[in-house]
Amino acid sequence: MWYAASVGASVLAEEPTQFRNVLTLAALPMTQTFYGLIQMIYLILIYAPIRDGTVELSKALALLGLGFVGFLAEAISAWAQGVVCASGIAELPRTKGASFVNTVILAAYVELWGILGIVFTILGTTLIG
To answer: Is 49 exposed, middle or buried (0-12, 13-18, 19+ CB in 10 A)?
Structure first.
């Protein structure tokens, strides 16, 4: 997200009328933060209430690994989406905003990695038990 916002600051210095488009495109990579929050809350609500005060080591390691895989999926998705959005932001002045919709569509393709990350993390918890 910081990369898209950095490019957005340069674009706004050149063409301030693109503020709405820049703000929208710079904010898109933040959605993965919400996916990560949902994963964290889900894991805490499902596995934090330990009934007898102990957790099997294998289950704890599986949850740690699952959490790391979810984190990695969200981080890669956010990074890649930030690059896509930054490229689209850079083209806004040249196209007079006409590239906005196309950039959002391309950013949605990268968003799929984040969505799959949250889905696989939640599905993985059902396998752990």
So the answer is: exposed
Q: What is the 3-state secondary structure of 10-58? A: HHHHHCHHHHHHHHHHHHHHHHHHHHHHHHHHHHHHHHCCCCCCCCCHH
pLDDT tens per residue, range 12-68: 999 999 999 999 999 999 999 999 999 888 888 877 766 666 777 888 888 889 889
* Residues whose CB is less than 8 angstroms from the CB of residue 72 and which lie 6 or more positions away in sequence, other chains included: 117
Q: Where are the domains of the chain?
A: 1-126
Q: How far apart are CA 87 and CA 3, in angstroms?
A: 10
Q: Check if CATH label 1.20.120.610 holds for domain 1-126.
A: yes
Q: Which two tokens stand for residue 72?
A: 């990695």
Q: Two tokens at 2?
A: 């910081």
